[in-house]
Design goal:
CATH topology of the largest domain: OB fold (Dihydrolipoamide Acetyltransferase, E2P)
Number of domains: 2
Distance between the termini: 15 Å
Helix content: 40-55%
Shape: elongated
Number of strands: 5
Strand content: 15-25%
Structural class: alpha+beta
Largest sheet: 5 strands, antiparallel
Order of helices and strands: EEHEEHE
Amino acid sequence: MNEAWGTVVALVGEQATIRIDETGCGRCRQPGGCGGSQAATLFCHTPRTFCVPNPDGRQVGERVQVVLAGGSLGRSALHAYVQPLLALLGGALAGSAIAGEAGAIGGSVAGLLLGWLLLRRAQMRWRQEHGLQPSIRS
């Protein structure tokens, strides 16, 4: 399970918007740590927020622990990085076999587009699966 601490910043109906307090592995600021939290601030200045179900009725300002189901982060990373790459390579190989270098270029673009469409489809499907959504630990 992946866990992070955050603060409830807004309530909208049955949902709570959580601002994650820290990023990184916990050793970022320690000597010999990776420094990932400092590197992340170079690319993203806005705090990370998530909208999660609020069954316990948490209030604004309350500190909560947000939990992501085990395996869901790895599964989504696999789909986000590997699936479009394989589609790109498959399209390039198929295009190359059909029309040489120009076919490889066209096939790689078509494969990348197909990989993106498959990823969007999977994302829409995962939004409906409650087991893959972040939740507030009681």
